[in-house]
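Re: the 512-residue chain
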Amino acid sequence: MPREPSAKELAEDYSSNGTISGGNTYTDPLIDRAICARDIPLLSQLQTNTIRVYAVDPTANHDQCMQMLADAGIYVIADLGEPKNSINRDSPQWNAEIYDRYTAVVDTFSKYTNTLGFFAGNEVTNAVNNTFASAFVKAAVRDVKAYIVEKKYRPIGVGYATNDDDQRSELADYFDCGDASAAIDFWGYNIYSWCGNSSYRASHYEERTEEFSTYNVPAFFAEYGCITETREFTEVGALFGSDMSKVWSGGIIYMYYQEANDYGLVTIGSDDKATKLPDFTVLSSQIAKVDPTGVAMASYSPTNKPQACPTQNTVWAANDTLPPSPNNAVCSCMVQSLNCTASSNIDDDAIETNFNYLCDPNNGDFCSGILANGTTGVYGAYSMCNAQERISWAFNAFFMDQTTNNQKNTDPCNFKGAAKKQTPKSSGSCRAVVSQAGDSGTGVITSAPSPTATTGSGSGSGSGSGSSASATGAANILAIPGFSYAVPLPWVTVFTNNLEDEYPKLDLSSMY
């Protein structure tokens, strides 16, 4: 079975670095009206009806760009993470910090009628040795879906984008199986197997289509557009043809802006003007040839059932038991109950250094309550707390051990100023939380207080007038009950690690 990270490795992940490559910074292209005014007409030339945004700033104002997109009939699928704050495949965590980031994006974009859905992860599991990370992403899907319901937002789907690797079947099954409350609402597939002027069979599109013919939620290509040969984009005809359109809800061409990886459709000059690249013209010509048809809403009567969960074996490690839901109130109760906590001015370096020492099993058992293991399905009751809260637990565990077993240590709550003593408190609902978690922190908390602190950031500081974008060029997706609303067939391009992926404007006939 693939190796799970050690306790030390898990504890070191106090600030997950995300799945977007290229550093820890990003630019949100949906906050600059000038950029949107420049790019949207070009997207419309490609008959775009949906774009994918890989990272957005939930504190910024998106009203103008979202309305401009809506007026052009363009929907948005937003990834919830950002480079410094998302689930890391090598040492995954599902904690309050990531939860707050994800729900802040939901808060900001839920008000726009042309927000089509959210991706809770992108290629987090991408090899046999990190399949356990999928347990943490599925927990994110579960909790974001629950948050949308709790906040009484309109139904908005939460999905996952996967790469095309040997675990493709296990991944698709895992995220679709089990309790519907934790299952994805749609499935994105990043696939680059059609290169040059390939074919339906040679590209393995035929195999993938057969595999997904029994899938019970919408599936589409979240990225495609191989560049190992001249880009002919002949796969567009196959994807929107009769063989595939019965199974797939289209696909997203990667990508819109030209970068060092050479996937772009347009290049941005020093004068901020966009110039079409040859691939733009080729793609446009292929899109013009297709005329896909889908299922009318009145005729939509799905019969496919959820998949069975994959068995744990040498190629699949993720446990069906998921990490606990982040709850800031629980974490606050825990910290209040401690005798030794992190100093208020502790920095990231001190947190990392002390995690490395305290969570090394060779030095003792001080971290059971804060570690999470996606393979065994064993999660500390406080594993979902933020880094400062988790290191406080470890400090206290060490302090209590030394106070009892090592009288020679006269200052076991110091750690070079990183820790401080306090008078513990435990009253009301907090008493039950601490009791259920137990002294080791490995118990199951069943009477958690309301997570009043984990409400995201609302619509952000840039909420403007608070108006919602209303799509005049695209069908309204608000009036459909449950999660069977019509969605556009994803199609066309991808912006950079900011606003990526697009789709052309089609009849909204495929559906959730």
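The two ends are 35 Å apart (CA to CA).
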